[in-house]
Amino acid sequence: MSRPHTPAIHARGLLKRFGEMRAVDGIDLDVPRGMIFAILGPNGAGKTTLMRMLATLASPDGGSASVLGHDLVSAPQAVRAGIAMTGQFASLDEDLTGRENLVLLARLWGFRGRTSRERADELLAAFDLSDAATKQVKDYSGGMRRRLDIAASLVVTPGVLFLDEPTTGLDPVARQSVWRMIRGLAGSGVTVLLTTQYLDEADQLAARIAVIDHGKKIAEGTSRELKVSVGSGFLHVALADPARIEEAAALLERRLQATVQRGVEGAMLSVVAKTSRDANEALAALLAAGIELADFSMGSPSLDEVFFALTGKKTS
Amino acid sequence: MNDTARFPELRHVPRPPAPSALSNALVFGWRAVLKFKHVPEQLFDLVMTPIMFTLLFTFVFGGALAGSPGTYLQVFLPGILVQTVVFNAVYSGMGLSTDLGKGLFDRFRSLPIWPLSPFAGLMVGDILRHLIAGGIILSIGLLLGYRPEAGIGGVIAAFALLVAIGFGMGWIFIVLGLLIRTPMTVMTIGFTVLFPLVFASNIMVAPETMPGWLRAFVEVNPVSLMTSAMRGLMGGGVTSRELLLALAAPIALTLVLAPVTLALYRRR
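The joint structure predicted for all components is written out below.
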């Protein structure tokens, strides 16, 4: 069905309006086959709308896109035959058992009778849900639900798997387990497009990351490229006397010509330094002004800091 | 720890030959049957109101309205069956609204299946509900002394009409379910529309004593037309004109609202 030499996803100028608001405002996207690609952005950035368009659940108001070589608008059924989507809210029938949910989907895909039950049992085993197979989904824990929801997307191995915030609301153990699952899938050749508002998730999983804010793509690259694009690194300082934090912040801003980020706790300041020489000079200036430092460090920026530098906003 | 899943072993499973639209619809019908198995209490909601109506109207008002409860029940029972089916349609709209809110339909919509098949499944569930609820009400009627003069053939024909009525009315609430996000609002709107439609009909009272303007409405009210045909089928003496008038609304609703349903479903 899918055409092998086309990219998994190819989008140009995708646009979606809700009334006056442009939820997705002209986004280009190229995702090669077999890659884990993350769309990173805060709540309301347009991530889910973008994904829903690519999964044929919402029709674009402008631009064009193809998935596995099939045009979204002119060949939606061909797109659907090659994709699967696990949305943010469990797309399962709560009244049915886990096994019945999978058998239902297997039959909709065209597996008959015994084959559909075998496929369901195979997936339940692979996702460690055999013991809960005959329990109603409403009695599942959050992590079990998410696993079943992802299993439900794999009844037929999809060419592209869409995962909308796959770990939102999960505890750390369940989260690790979903991450392993996603890596395993990509290892077997499935292209994964996931949205996330967790920077560490994008950093951990994705080969490429697109950063989205207000419906626009503001940056794209590997995690390393994004970090480099922001500058050589960050200078972090902790003041011995918290009372002098405003004075220190003003001094750093003046010397380094960059916005200073205030730490969550106490007298921590972080600021982009273009070169390490700049950083050294800024430190010397602080000391010359009599501002004593409890601690300081230079580091390549985290994705959090990248995001801040790109959008001027904190992520959490 | 629930963390030993063997994901890398997942084998590549190609898509089997695409199933037919009918097969898709039957799978959704199977889902409706499973729902009965897992949530049998939904039937309780469906039959309690009509059972109460049957008992209250027969014994409280029956004597005053028709001379005796027994005489009243002969006229009232076919009508309460119509009322049951019309009210039941509201529950299927609520069910759809609930499904849509949970994202379940997003999964169905991203599958390469016949787009109307989930609704065909809802309809299968509805028809089962109508038959079960109708059967329970008829049994209670028989216990209370109701006698269908047209015999078993008449009852079967009446139930076929009942299913057609339920099918037609079902579209209204599928459309409402698609348009309205909260199931409670679907219910409120549903009953706000249905109460006048059901009470300003010939189900409970003969229209002769009503003021002229109301009688004019009662006589063209589709619920009255359906009730007259049900009485004719179960009691004997139905005319083909009565049947056609009873079927007019369900047929018109299906012709108009099935395409609307598809358009709304695609647009969401």
